[in-house]
Amino acid sequence: MGFLILTVVVVLLLVKLSHWQWTRGEQKAQHLAQFEANQAPGSLASAVQKGQFLAIDGQFRPEFAVWLDNQTHQGRVGYRLFLPFIPNQQPSRWWLVELGWVAAPAVRALPAVPALASRYQLSGFIDTPSRRVVLKKETTSHKWPARVQRIDLQALKAQMPALEAQWLIRAEKLVDVTTPSTDALAQAGVTPVWQPVVMPPVKHYGYALQWALMALAVSIGAGIWWYKTKQREAV
After folding, report:
1. Residue 156 pLDDT > 90, yes or no?
2. 5 within 8 A of 13, measured Cβ to Cβ
3. CA pair distance 193, 78, nearest whole angstrom
4. Averaged over 18-25, what is the pLDDT?
5. Using an 8 Å Cβ cutoff, are 71 and 80 in contact?
């Protein structure tokens, strides 16, 4: 009897895990669908929302570069580069922009900040900073360029009062208005790595199938054991 109770508990747990993974996959699929639906460029003149796609003109402030530490890409260690962006449409409201990943130098030093001194058309998505656990509280006062363990917009706003304190922009494309045919991000040595979801829905569905098959295998194995046990008792 104890074995059957344990089997039921294990099967129920596996089924629950399968259902959880399937639900996560559906949530990710809906999230991606929302991003696809927001591909029409929005305007800063109206209220913005997470996932909204923007295409705005303006200029960066490279002297206030923020390097997000401990970022890997294709097995290499590096940083994610964030720069304040001043849109022509609203020059009194700065936006922090994630440009992408830059490889770390061989020595423990920050990479050189790309000049990016021209006028640019920036395309990207409105988002909030990712939640990251840090081992110790960082100072709210930064030396520039700044090396940080997480993006804290409130702390950055204390030193840049014009900075938007709730939202940031994840850059998808950057075009120098003087040379529109040039990929400004590639020219600056920056690799865009941000994705709307870290794990795609198909992986969640795959894990859900694995848990379901394990539940089925445990059920069949328990059934076979129970049948053979009853046969031995009958002999």
Report:
1. yes
2. no
3. 12
4. 81
5. yes
Residue % of the chain over a pLDDT of 70: 83
Indicate the pTM of the whole model. Answer: 0.69
Interacting residues of 20 by C-beta distance below 8 A, sequence separation 6+:
208
- What's the one-letter identity of residue 1? M
For 80, 109, 159, the CA distances from 105, given in Å and listed in that order, are 13, 6, 27
| C-alpha to C-alpha distance for 140 and 199, rounded to whole angstroms | 32
For helices 2-37 and 201-234, the axis angle rounded to 10 degrees is 160
* 95-103 and 146-148 beta bridge pairing: unpaired
Query: How remote is the C-alpha of 198 from its chain's centroid?
Result: 6
As a whole number of angstroms, the distance between CA 13 and CA 16 comes to 5
106, burial (CB in 10 Å: exposed 0-12, middle 13-18, buried 19+):
exposed
Which residue in this structure is represented by tokens 């260690």? 77
- Is the pLDDT confidence value at 63 over 90? yes
Whether pLDDT at 138 is above 60? no
| Cβ count near 44 (within 10 Å) | 18
| Residues sharing a CB contact under 8 Å with residue 113, sequence separation 6 or more, in sequence order | 62, 65, 81, 145
